[in-house]
Amino acid sequence: MIWKARQHTIEFPRRPLVMGIVNINDDSFCGDGTLDPTAALAQAEQQLNEGADIIDIGAESARTNREAISANEEVDRLRPFMAKWPELKARFNAPLLSINTWRSDVIAEVLPLGGDLINDISGLPDAFNAKLCAEHNAGLLIMHSVGQPKVPHTHVQYPSIMDTLDRFFEQRLVMAESVGLPRENIILDPGIDFAKQRDDNLTIYRELEKLQRFGRPILLPVSRKTVIGDVLGVPALERDPGTVACIAAGVSRGAQIFRVHNVKAAVQAVKMLWAIESVR
User: Fold this and answer.
1) What domains appear along the chain, each with residue ranges and CATH number?
2) Per-residue pLDDT tens for 250-273?
């Protein structure tokens, strides 16, 4: 399986990739965000030193109990980081830069500045973001969710979450390809904690292999998720052991990318798990 994003071509199977989270905002649920671009770049540098393959920058928290920011403010927060990114990229082994945004007008502004992947939490309700990625040969992450981002959807119920994901990704892949985005540029994200109940999330971890039929890399946003807190009864900053457990479940069921806050722990976990999975 091949995944392409701009000039990058990554072939699977291989050791899973680790995506480090850098929040260029002041309301991250883990309290690790910053509006200082120099501090954000320092976070990214630390994560790259710890072995991150991808840095995912986001200017707006996905938390539904925080007000949305304007598109202009989002771009203004991202621009200084992106201007300095080539210096960081040149010092490390060609890491990828992911832009965590869902607004088409923001994507239209930031893709010409760089960035290899658009991490779209909107659920791709239309083809605009896919078309923009196609125009720049960028990668696109399609995440399952329902309804408008920044609005709580905790009431949503599914007869079968895996059947829902199957239909959703089938439709979204067809839509993206219809506007010229090659399937090779797309990765899939089942959207842990987004418009899902506790048991929906646990079912996704258990039955993740069912999504392999699409032949696309699967990203699991495992880090410090609410479902971990629900199971373990611990606050966000104490969820790294639970996060590693979710990484283990994901590796054994075919996930290729893990989005995390604690890059050092995740890199060590995936290296060890991959060694176990790939020994002959």
Assistant:
1) 2-278 (3.20.20.20)
2) 999 999 999 999 999 999 999 999
